[in-house]
Design a protein that fits this description.
elongated, binds ligand SAJ
């Protein structure tokens, strides 16, 4: 018998997951409260821009194995993939999980499996999902198999990551965990590791917090290097030759919908145990402001214009959610400096403060008249960037948050270059180094 799966939440994770499950000949219904999105899917079109996702989603839609609707239906398996953002005061906002749980529960029957994939504080599956089941008169342990199975998707490589990564499958009961393991292994090549739901919730938060703290450590190493006149990149390269060392890459801050958010879930629930995690968050969040302070110290003034290269939070993707560029824009606005943002991939960007991003995909017009250029995203388009790409008069300053540009060429063109984790270099420094 073909099992029916309902996926609630058709975003960056839910939609490709639904399509890949449909590809394995499950009967899949994707549900989302966003009516225009559902209409687009009903018309056979994929709303996501990632090249590998589009054919998978459109094939699933055209075959009829994947349908889309704004309301759920009875099914065998329910997967909840809705966002779990943080509030302005850094608390987990689980309202969408609660709403999705309630909407799902109306269709639940004994024997169903319910899986939460959204990143959540420890205990959420037991509290919210099992709680909603109880409210419907179902016993969450006897009548249902309730699980927490976190996604591990790296945007830009979504399809591969869903299909190939190992999974952690947490059950409220051992039976639920083993059922989830069989389900994920039926459409993923990766292995699924059964644990409890709380262990799986903690694992997801641990994975992303591990990354955030390591990036913060790399940023602190960069600060030390800037103070001591040493190039951190060179030191990281040799330090990483140690077999048990893997220093991460310092940068302009940490963006995306996960890493800057998830550690706060631990900080909120365990304030006394998480001073290291809290501090790492603050260090990473302060990076854009640090770059601006360095530029101000090098002479950037209020009333001047700057160009920001990169809106995306990471290289070669069109995703600008919680990007460090947003924090830079806010800091620029507060300093009375004007900005234009260039990005070859991002076409729209939501800024919480509602400030305009002034986005363009034309590099020459973006840098025209700019006193300084900030490199914020590691897009391939910026690798080895040379002065001639600016096509006109040079800015006084380039602040390279990603260590991407051809710094020597810019300095040779009279530009002062500030790089994360390296001493500032100006044309005057080079002249001084020329032996008499
Ligand atoms: N970054 C650095 N230095 C580094 C690595 C990253 O500054 O050494 C920055 C990036 O530029 C970016 C931010 O950190 O702004 C986050 O980037 P990321 O490479 O950690 O990628 P995400 O946020 O797209 O994906 C992460 C992944 N988690 C881990 O690698 C532990 C992914 O597997 C998760 O599925 C995803 O979070 C998620 O959805 O939770």
């Amino acid at each position: 018998m073909v099992e029916k799966v309902v996926v609630v939440g058709l975003g960056y994770v839910g939609l490709p997951t639904a399509a890949l499950i449909a590809d394995k000949r499950y009967d899949v219904l994707g549900v989302d409260v966003n009516a225009p999105l559902v209409e687009m899917l009903q018309a056979g079109k994929c709303p996501l821009g990632e090249a590998e996702i589009i054919p998978v989603v459109e094939r699933a839609l055209h075959s009829g194995q994947l349908r889309a609707a704004t309301v759920a239906e009875p099914a065998d398996i329910f997967i909840i993939c809705v966002p779990t953002p943080i509030t302005a005061d850094k608390r987990a906002d689980l309202s969408m999980v609660s709403k999705a749980a309630k909407a799902t529960m109306q269709h639940l029957r004994p024997g169903n499996m319910v899986i939460l994939e959204s990143t959540s504080p420890i205990g959420t599956t037991g509290d919210i999902i099992a709680g909603a089941a109880r409210d419907m008169g179902l016993d969450p342990v006897i009548d249902l198999d309730i699980c927490y199975c976190p996604e591990r998707v790296f945007p830009g490589n979504t399809v591969n990551e869903i299909l190939k990564n190992d999974r952690v499958v947490g059950g409220l009961t051992p039976r639920a965990a083993m059922r989830a393991k069989a389900f994920y292994e039926s459409f993923c090549a990766g292995k699924a590791f059964p644990v409890t739901a709380a262990e799986a919730e903690f694992s997801k938060l641990m994975e992303n917090t591990y990354r955030d703290v390591n990036i913060a450590l790399a940023n602190v190493f960069a600060h030390i290097a800037e103070r001591s006149g040493i190039d951190v990149a060179k030191v990281i390269e040799v330090a990483n030759r140690h077999p048990r060392v893997n220093v991460h890459t310092p940068g302009p801050g940490v963006g995306g919908h996960c890493i800057p958010v998830d550690p706060w879930f631990l900080v909120e629930s365990y304030p006394e145990e998480t001073s290291l995690i809290h501090q790492a968050r603050l260090i990473n969040d302060a990076q854009p402001d640090r770059l601006l302070k360095a530029a101000r110290a090098a002479g950037l003034e209020a009333g001047e214009k700057v160009a920001i290269l990169g809106a995306a939070y990471r290289g070669n993707i069109d995703d600008a959610r919680d990007t460090p560029t947003e924090k830079l824009i806010d800091a620029l606005a507060e300093a009375g400096i004007e900005w234009v943002t260039h990005d070859p991939h991002v076409t729209h960007m939501h800024i919480h403060s509602e400030r305009p991003a002034n986005l363009t995909d034309d590099l020459v017009s973006a840098v025209r008249g700019a006193a300084a250029v900030f490199v914020m995203t590691d897009h391939d388009a910026y690798k080895g960037l040379k002065p001639m790409s600016f096509g006109g008069p040079m800015p006084r300053l380039v602040i390279d948050g990603r260590r991407l540009i051809d710094a020597d060429a810019f300095v040779a063109s009279g530009v002062t270059v500030i790089r994360v984790g390296a001493p500032m270099v100006s044309a005057a420094d080079i002249v001084q180094k020329i032996p008499a």
